[in-house]
Write a structure and sequence with these properties.
Layout: H1 7-26, E1 33-38, E2 44-49, H2 52-77, H3 87-114, H4 119-138, H5 152-156, H6 158-185, H7 190-222
Antiparallel strand pairs: 1-2
Amino acid sequence: MKPRLHIIDLAIVAITVLPFIYLLTIYNQLPDQVATHFGSDGKADTISNKSTLWLGMSVTGGMGIFTYLLLRLLPRIDPKKTAKYSAGVFNKIAIAVALLLVCINFFIINAAQTGEFKFIKTMPVLLGVFFIFMGNLLHSIKPNYFAGIRTPWTLESEETWRKTHQLGGKIWFAGGFIIVITGLAIPSPINTYVMVGLLFIMAIIPIVYSYVYYQSIQKNENS
């Protein structure tokens, strides 16, 4: 069966195009040289021709569409046919990722207009909400080779996969909530470093846990 476009697919494409339409409408109002790179304090440290905005936004938008289509098509391209059991979850994640990158493109345009990357202040909040959303979905992802916490130990054992994703979902939800709170309460650039530290912890704990849990299973089986 050939893949068919659904109304949600067309809607995501249309939403992805919106920042480009907005940039086109204000393009002549922008100065020839705009801020294109920013330091941890949100202040511009690189100035480039405004035409480079198209390239930067195209990369971001292209990543959004590619990730969206990849997640949507996983059940069809998975040779193991295991991704189909999480198709609904993948669809939700695909939409969330696409919308996140659309927001980033709008922030890029705003930075070119104002000379200040305001995303540096709202990024922790936006990413925190994203991880809260992901935390609610993580436990529902069934074993597969494409998405989820894919370590050698979760891929080897369905029980390790299930336990790791249950824990990971709780950690990502709690971590996302903390990122939102610290993003609102702590000024930048400190909140950026706090966010990076929290993301590292959220990533490393499930990986370590998958190893420890798998080893405990093996020990029990061999005893």
